[in-house]
Every structure is written in structure tokens, then in C-alpha cells.
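Structure first, sequence second, as always.
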């Protein structure tokens, strides 16, 4: 069974982050996460203080999410931030209202990818389910894969949203040889609601997903749960324990 270092996307605990930034990061590290997708430090904290905190907690910045449905971002500022924190990946998510819109955004992704490469970072696109909408018989995500430069634009595929979009996550990941360095992992409850579930508590086959991820060169598994029926820290701890149980965690 392949093993991976495990990171966390703190959107899962966004409310706690806004109230107690330091305490929240301490709790995430205590669960066992080695990496984190994290942006610039909050108001009142210097970059040096953030780096000292992350060093104390042995949390590696993997990358940062730049925006949702907005490309008016200072990407060079983010590449500078990642150079200083040892991170690599800058992610965005977008919406698309037509094939032409998707083609235009694919061109923008290539340009942003070049900016990121100049700053020794890597641009990645994070999907949801709406990228599986089809225009002229082709899904938006397949169009993006075709129209973006494999050297400039990588993907942070999300297992839950692939399944909600009607595809099998393991099968879809296998289409991404060399293009899926980060994999967002989250599970799905059975039933019509298709609510988010902790890893190993739902219907997705994570051993198969891990095999597919290993086959295409994925570097990190990143745990995220958009909404939870439990306390979100409990949900993250359950996901981490289940990854341990499935023998999918590789420690540094």
C-alpha cells in the first residue's frame, strides 16, 4: 500500500482559525498533520512569528490557496511568501458559465502558471463538481486539462467533488500522470444528500484512490472537510486515525 505525508487544509476549522489562530494550529499539529495549506499571516503577526510558530509545531507549509472565483491576485507576493516558508503550490478555484469562458480561463491559467514558475512555485487548479458540466460533449475539467500547459498548470483534485460530479475518483486521478501533486481527500456519506464524511466513514475507496495517486506522482494527501456533523477538530482526528488504520501515512 502506498504511503504519503498528510497535510491539512484549515478551511475545515475556519471559524476556530478566525478566533484563535495559534491555538488552532497547535490542535492541528497535535492530531498528527505534517503539512498545511496556509496563506500569509493574520493581522498582528509577522511572517517571522508565523514561521517560528510553524517550526515549533513541525508543520510544513505545502502551499496556499490564492482565491475562489477571482484571478485578480498578487501571485508574485504569494510566490515570495512560499519561497520564505518552503511551500510550493498556489491554488485557485473558479466557476465557468460557458465553453468560451472556460477557454479564456485556461489561457489565464497558463499565464499565471508562468508567473508562478518564475517565482519557483507551481500553479494548481482545485476542482469542485461544477467542472463536470459538459459543453459540446466535453467536461470543463477535461477541457482545462487539454488546454493548459502540463508544465505550467497542475491540479489539486478533490475526491469528494469528483464523486459528486459523477466520476470515480481513482479512475479520474489516473488520467493525471505528472499533473496531480496534491490530492484533497474527503469522503461522502451514503444517501441522496451526499453530505461530507470523515475519511473512511463514507463510500469512497481510499486504498484505490491512494494507489491511483501514487501511480501519477501525487506528493501530498491533504485532508479537508467543508462541513461536518461533528466538531470539525473531531472530524479531522477521525480522518487522520482512519488514514493510519488504512496504512496510508508516511512519516518523515
Amino acid at each position: 500500500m502506498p504511503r504519503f505525508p498528510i497535510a491539512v487544509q484549515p478551511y475545515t476549522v475556519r471559524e476556530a482559525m478566525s478566533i484563535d489562530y495559534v491555538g488552532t494550529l497547535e490542535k492541528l499539529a497535535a492530531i498528527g498533520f505534517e503539512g498545511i495549506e496556509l496563506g500569509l499571516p493574520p493581522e498582528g503577526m509577522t511572517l517571522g512569528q508565523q514561521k517560528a510558530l510553524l517550526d515549533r509545531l513541525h508543520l510544513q507549509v505545502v502551499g496556499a490557496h490564492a482565491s475562489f472565483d477571482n484571478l485578480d491576485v498578487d501571485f508574485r507576493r504569494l510566490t515570495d511568501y512560499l519561497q520564505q516558508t518552503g511551500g510550493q503550490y498556489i491554488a485557485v478555484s473558479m466557476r465557468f458559465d460557458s465553453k468560451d469562458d472556460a477557454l479564456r480561463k485556461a489561457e489565464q491559467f497558463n499565464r499565471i502558471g508562468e508567473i508562478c514558475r518564475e517565482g519557483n512555485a507551481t500553479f494548481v487548479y482545485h476542482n469542485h463538481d461544477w467542472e463536470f458540466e459538459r459543453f459540446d460533449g466535453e467536461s470543463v475539467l477535461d477541457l482545462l486539462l487539454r488546454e493548459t500547459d502540463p508544465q505550467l498548470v497542475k491540479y489539486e483534485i478533490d475526491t469528494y467533488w469528483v464523486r459528486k460530479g459523477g466520476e470515480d475518483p481513482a479512475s479520474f486521478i489516473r488520467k493525471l500522470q505528472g499533473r496531480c501533486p496534491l490530492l484533497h481527500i474527503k469522503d461522502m456519506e451514503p444517501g441522496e444528500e451526499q453530505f461530507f464524511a470523515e475519511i473512511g466513514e463514507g463510500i469512497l475507496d481510499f486504498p484505490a484512490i491512494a494507489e491511483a495517486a501514487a501511480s501519477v506522482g501525487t506528493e501530498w494527501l491533504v485532508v479537508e472537510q467543508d462541513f461536518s456533523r461533528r466538531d470539525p477538530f473531531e472530524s479531522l482526528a477521525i480522518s487522520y486515525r482512519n488514514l493510519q488504520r488504512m496504512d496510508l501515512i508516511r512519516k518523515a
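Margin note: The radius of gyration is 17 Å.
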